[in-house]
Amino acid sequence: MNTLHTIAFTVYPYVCLAFFLMGSLARFDRDQYTWKSDSSQLLRAGQLRWGSNLFHGGILFLFFGHLFGQLTPHAVYGLVMTSSQKQLLAVIAGGVAGGLCFIGLTMLLHRRLFDPRIRLTSHRTDIAILVILWVQLAIGLSTLPSSLRHVGEPTTMLRLAEYLQGIVLLQPNAALVAGIEWHFQLHILLGMTIFLLFPFSRLVHVWSGFGTVAYLFRPYQMVRSRRLNVPARQNLPRRAS
C-alpha cells in the first residue's frame, strides 16, 4: 500500500500533466477540426442557457480559486489574512461557486441523457467527461463539512497546499497527503485524472477560451479605403421624342 500510495501521489501527477500538455499539442496539430465543443443549442435552449452559464461561471471560479488558493505560498497570503481566515473564505466562496456549478452541470447532464435527440448526437466521451466532472464536484462538495470543522486548525489545508506546491516545484512529497481523509485524496486523484483525459475529450475547447484573451493585446488592424476609378458619365445624345 505504501508503494501504491507513493506511485499515485508522486509519479501519477506527472504522467497526467505530460498527457495534458503533449496530448493537447498533438490534437491541435493533427485534428484541428475536432478542437471545439459540439453545439446542440437549438434543442432545449432554455435549459442549456441556464445550465451552461451556471456551470461555466462556477467552474472558472473554482479553477482559479484552486490555482491561486493552493499554489500561493503561505508567506504571501499571510500578509493579509491568517490560515484560518483563508480556509473559512475558501469554504464559503468555494461552497457557493461549487453549488452553482453542480446545479448547472446536473442540468447539462440531465439534458444530454434524457433528451433522445441530444443523446443520439452525443459522443460517449461527452457523456463520460460530464459524469466524471459531476462526480468530482460531488466529492469536492463533500469535503466542505470537514474543512469547516478544521477552520480553527487548518492543518489539512496547509498540507495539501504544500503537497501541490511541491508538485509544481518538482519536489513531490506523498507523505504530506498520507493520513488525511479519504475524500480529499480521492478529490486530488480524480482531478489529476481529468487532466489525463483532457486531450481526448471536448474539454480541449478550454484552450480556445483562454486563447481569446490574446485578442485584448493585439494591435489594431489598419484598413485603408480604396478609391475606385469610376469612369465619368458620358453625355449620350438623346433620341428626339
From TrEMBL:
SUPFAM superfamilies per the UniProt record, alphabetical: Respiratory nitrate reductase 1 gamma chain
Residue ranges occupied by any NarG-like domain in the UniProt entry: 6-226
Subcellular location: Cell membrane
Protein residues bound to heme b 2: H66, H187
Residue ranges crossing the lipid bilayer per the database entry: 6-28, 48-68, 88-109, 129-148, 188-217
Reactions it catalyzes: nitrate + a quinol = a quinone + nitrite + H2O
Annotated keywords: Cell membrane, Electron transport, Heme, Iron, Membrane, Metal-binding, Nitrate assimilation, Oxidoreductase, Transmembrane, Transmembrane helix, Transport
Subunit relationships: Dimer of heterotrimers each composed of an alpha, a beta and a gamma chain. Alpha and beta are catalytic chains; gamma chains are involved in binding the enzyme complex to the cytoplasmic membrane.
Protein name per its UniProtKB record: nitrate reductase (quinone)
Organism: Rubrivivax albus
Lineage: Bacteria, Pseudomonadati, Pseudomonadota, Betaproteobacteria, Burkholderiales
